[in-house]
Amino acid sequence: MSRLTLALDVMGGDFGPRIVIPAVATALNQHSMLSFLLYGDQAIAQPYLNNLTAEQQRRITFVHTPQQISPDLPLATALRQSKGSSMRMAIEAVAEGKADGCVSGGSTAVLMALAKRLIQPLPNIDRPALTSLIPTMNGKSSVMLDLGANVEADQHQLTQFAEMGNIFAEVMLKLVFPRMALLNIGTEDNKGSQTVRDTHQALKMRNDLNYLGFIEGDKLMNHLADVIVCDGLSGNIALKTLEGAVKNVLSFFKTQEGDLCRLAKRYLLRLIFYRYYRKLKQINPDRHNGATLLGLLSVVVKSHSGAGSNAFYYAIEYALSQIENQIPQKISQGLGRFGDLA
């Protein structure tokens, strides 16, 4: 890996420095050419920074700011009050060329609005789309977008998401002519909203996209498509449902305190379903934490607000992978081959 610098919003998310700093330590151990710009309240972060080695601390620049963006504020108010906040300063570092990308666990809406205002979207992209790799039962991944950046999206924007997702899958998953599907409540042509049906018909006419048709929510992890396109409302609900289902099943199999009979039942079930339990562990949502605002000139990654240190580390890795693969540049170049957006 060439020398890279990431800017992190240390105060973002539910746990702030308590999970961000240990994740930074793990990333520094894994990448000798990596350094960090950290933005947050140094008084709160210092006890965790003290746990780092001297070598790790030399590769960190901590910029103190007590200002944070409350997740309870309306978007317009949060934007007005964002100056000097840890999230805004991390994004500004990217915009000013001080960092190659940034990661934050803060508010998705504020992060997207600030990133779009400070970094700007790629030419011909109306709105960035929150994009992530979701695990599948065969151990591979699918690209899914939008996952919450745009609650509503029209046919034109969904088509943009499809084209960006196609390029993202080509680069990140090393695919040729990725299979694409549109998330819907059924697979028949007459199902879904008018916007979804119109987008479906438009994508069917595209010879430059390997569009297969509709996909339903119960098939998202079956690897029937490499790219799954949807609006932010549907995508966010679907993703959180998947995450919750996997976590709940995993927690069910974990040994917990209880009477001997209950522990014996758990152990027996774990033996019976051992192969499936191992698969579920492989698709642990922590390993797929991080969604990028695809369509910006630089890499901006949103970590789950409730992520632990291990999950936040994977969000850092997700950002690094995109920077190394030059995703913004590849998206910009790749969109040219599609011509004018429909």
From TrEMBL:
UniProt-listed InterPro entries: FA_synthesis, Phospholipid_synth_PlsX-like
Gene Ontology terms: biological process: fatty acid biosynthetic process; phospholipid biosynthetic process
Main localization (coarse): cytoplasm
Catalytic activity: a fatty acyl-[ACP] + phosphate = an acyl phosphate + holo-[ACP]
Pathway(s) this gene product operates in, as recorded in its UniProt entry: Lipid metabolism; phospholipid metabolism
Enzyme Commission (EC) number: 2.3.1.274
GO molecular function annotation: phosphate:acyl-[acyl carrier protein] acyltransferase activity
Pfam families in alphabetical order: FA_synthesis
Gene3D superfamilies linked to this entry: Isopropylmalate Dehydrogenase
Subcellular location: Cytoplasm
Domain of life: Bacteria
Record's keyword annotation contains Lipoprotein: no
GO cellular component, one term: cytoplasm
Enzyme class per UniProt: transferase
Keywords: Acyltransferase, Cytoplasm, Lipid biosynthesis, Lipid metabolism, Phospholipid biosynthesis, Phospholipid metabolism, Transferase
Annotated function: Catalyzes the reversible formation of acyl-phosphate (acyl-PO(4)) from acyl-[acyl-carrier-protein] (acyl-ACP). This enzyme utilizes acyl-ACP as fatty acyl donor, but not acyl-CoA.
Similarity comment: Belongs to the PlsX family.
HAMAP family the record matches: PlsX
Subunit architecture: Homodimer. Probably interacts with PlsY.
Protein name per the record: Phosphate acyltransferase
Organism for this UniProt entry: Haemophilus paracuniculus
